[in-house]
Amino acid sequence: MVKNWKLRKAISKKAEAELSDYPELVRKLLFYRGIKTKAEAEKYLQPDYERDLLDPFLMKDMAKAVDRLFLALERKEKIIIFGDYDADGVPGSAMLALFFHKIGYHNFEVFIPDRNNEAYGLSPEKIEDFTKQGVKLIITIDCGITDVTEVKLANKKGIDVVITDHHLAPAELPSAYAIVDAKQLDDHYPEKMLAGSGVMYKFICALLLKNRFNIPTGWEKWLLDLVVIATVSDMVPLTGENRLLAYYGLKVLRQTKRLGLLALLNIIKTRPANVTEDDISFMLGPRINSASRMSHASQAYYLLTTYDEVEAVTIAKHLEDKNKARREAVEVVIKGVAEQIGDLPIEELPPIVVAGSPDWGLGMLGLTSSRLVEKYGRPVWLWSQNANSVIKGSGRSDGSINLVEVMRWADDSVPGSKFFLDLGGHAMAAGFSLAPEKVSELAPRLISAYKKTKKEAVETELLVDEELTLDQLTWDTYQLIEPLAPFGVDNPKPVFWLKDLEVDEVKYFGNGGLHLELTFKKPDGKRIPAIGFFASPVPDDPTHIFGDLKLAKRERLDLLATLEKSMFKNYPELRLRIVDLKPTSVI
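^ thats the sequence. predicted structure below, dont judge the formating
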């Protein structure tokens, strides 16, 4: 994969004039993030909850969904909260459950499917179970928008379904009582990119606007710690209303009273007051997701809702253990793939990597596929087997092909016969299930289909916000950047180009040396570290992400990096986070 470093274009004269109240670096960073006027800059840099939060009733079917829940409450009907099993669906499920507890309504249950052995979303089997339990209303969170057959069955059984989701709406929508999903074609809600938990938050806001529960004004804001965890973990764009929810969500998270979150933060040695979006992305989110990957998502749900301190600590320790097991399982799969494909040089490998084993953890396949795409520089499909003996797999692309297109070619290669039990996803990430007796055909079919599929040249363009020198890496510079946070999708951290640096020290650390730390000496003699997580070279491995670059004391190189404040050991340290490295003067 070719990585081209490219300085962004100069800021326009019109934007220069509009943003003249701000320092030069800030003007550039705002402009590069689509902020071109003074009014836009003020809204971006100083979010205001009351001013910027959108009316939830602008969303299609919101009023219908609210009215149906009120009817269920009046009739004391049994309600199922049906959530997805990830770090978006679980916090959303917790929010609605906490709302029911707050209003004193207890005739409900939370159901979250088993990631490994149950279908994603609603299933006919669960509809039958809910019917036997006397359920009259199902509210989905972060799922349901494609469940046409299941909703039809629920209707037949006398169960109403309210779908709250944020995924793309299919051509045929479920016949639900109400569908709250801004991605419907005829939905005019201005913000289309809320996370699933963001949609649920808007639903709860809509319920409270009716003022039927004698709940103190602003109570819902204390749910924003769950919203920000979901919003950051699900990698939705941190712009518009998502930026507002994440901005205030971090403020709430830093003051959270949730015993489970406090216990988890204690285990990862992070003070609540210091939590950032990076802590969510790399620490909290993975541990919440580890529940569904390694045991069951209900553990994460209980973590977020418990009022028992002992239970909170017990679950937090459980999730920490599962997260460690998850990391170890990923390494087992990586090693297993290397054994299956042999010691061939990169250029002699098949154009795609297809590997699998019934012994590999299903929850690891997507994570590991992503790691292997980077290692081998080509699309990867991995498979394992669930408790029902069904082969389930996950694929990740390097950008050269559309995974779904390849799988559809493989599926239809024999006229009148389907190869997969099901397949889905999108161009870069997809999944499938397969009858076990067909697994030996998987690799040949995918390779054959790959050859028929249109290819795209893979070239990564790394956009650079500004060139800096080592002596410009100061707390003053960091304080110019900090107000642009929280950073994430569509609001990236500023990337800086530092040229012709001399390496002062090289270290490897963490889990046997997985991570890289380079140290550079500034003109005043002070040192500044540059950290690259999972960037340590493996001896004699030609797939190392920095290629032939020699990392040693006194070597000279160019560095792309972001500037960040580390609170490791709860002491502030200014450091760089490595984006890419190249030999000096190589562009």
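The radius of gyration is 25 Å.
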